[in-house]
Amino acid sequence: MITDERTTRHERVMSAVGQMMTAARTAPKGKGVDIIEITAVEGDDIRILSEKTRELGEMHSYGFFLRDAENILSAEAIILIGTRTAEQGLNCGYCGYPTCIAKPAPVPCAINSVDVGISIGSACAIAADLRLDTRVMFSVGYSARTLNITQGNNTVIAIAVSASSKNPFFDRK
């Protein structure tokens, strides 16, 4: 059997995306409480996410949203890593309020946000080991949150994933 790399690329990228999602899931969590949600987006759903990112960019005059909306169309997949809001009861003040009780409900717990960051780092480490092209994008995560792709998560960050001869997420216009 002879297999051209191009004919199996998407399948291999999606296998790697699964490994990235596992790394995000198994990343350390604050107080050992797992409130991370991880979703993969591919195919036509990337276009829907792109259109929402473009719409939000135009609405808020955010040029980088417009750039990222176009940029993700080169992705094989997009991983969304988010968190539900759950106070950790530490009264640490990292959120800007002296206690968890004093924190207004819509304000995310800082520990939750740190958990998202650690999960992103773990996922991107796997991508680097596998020599995949990635870009962490606030803009696309925000757009996914407005589409409720991540089912009510407060903080959502996207990782665009590609396997091409040149990373499409850098050297952008």
Describe the structure using short key phrases:
5 helices, 173 residues, 16% strand, globular, alpha+beta, single chain, four-stranded antiparallel β-sheet
Describe this structure in words.
Helix content is 45%, strand content 16%. It has one domain: NADH Oxidase, CATH 3.40.109. Strands 1-2-4-3 form a four-stranded antiparallel sheet, sandwiched between helices. By secondary structure, it is of the alpha+beta class. The mean pLDDT is 93.
Q: Can you give me a brief rundown of this structure?
A:
The chain has 173 residues and is of the alpha+beta class. The chain is 45% helix and 16% strand.
Mean pLDDT: 93
Number of strands: 4
Structural class comes to alpha+beta
**Radius of gyration from CA coordinates:** 17 Å
* Number of helices, where a helix is a run of at least 4 consecutive DSSP H or I residues: 5
Helices, strands, pairings?
Elements: H1 5-26, E1 36-42, H2 44-60, H3 63-71, E2 77-83, H4 110-129, E3 133-137, H5 138-146, E4 155-162
Antiparallel strand pairs: 1-2, 2-4, 3-4
Helix pairs in contact: 1-4, 2-3, 2-5
